[in-house]
TrEMBL record:
This is CCHC-type domain-containing protein. InterPro entries: Znf_CCHC_sf (IPR036875). It comes from the Eukaryota. It comes from Kingdonia uniflora. SUPFAM superfamilies: Retrovirus zinc finger-like domains (SSF57756). One of its GO terms (molecular function) is nucleic acid binding. The lineage of its organism: Eukaryota, Viridiplantae, Streptophyta, Embryophyta, Tracheophyta.
Length: 90
């Protein structure tokens, strides 16, 4: 019958230690290095962790070299990768 593989129950939910999202492990995290959103830019965004008081341990994506200065909170990138809403909620 169907070609669906049924895997044994060894694979429980994994949570990535890099981005805290479920479904992959840290070494396979797609958010560690992402391409810059700007079409004209070939830069790489790197996942970093904020350690400021207001956003302690909040993850964000930052341009590796400060050429274009792109910045995005990981939560924004994950939820709405296309729309770029600029909402400031603290
Ligand atoms: Zn991840
Ligand atoms: Zn860029």
């Amino acid at each position: 019958m169907g070609g669906r593989k049924h895997e044994a129950g060894t694979q429980s939910k994994v949570v990535c230690q890099m981005c805290n999202l479920e479904g992959h492990i840290a070494s396979k995290c797609p958010w560690v290095y992402t391409k810059c959103k700007k079409a004209t830019c070939n830069g790489i965004m790197k996942l970093m962790i904020s350690l400021t008081k207001n956003n302690y341990e909040r993850k964000f994506l930052k341009y590796q070299h400060s050429i274009c200065g792109s910045f995005q909170w990981l939560s924004d990138a994950v939820i709405k990768p296309r729309e770029q809403k600029e909402v400031h909620q603290v």
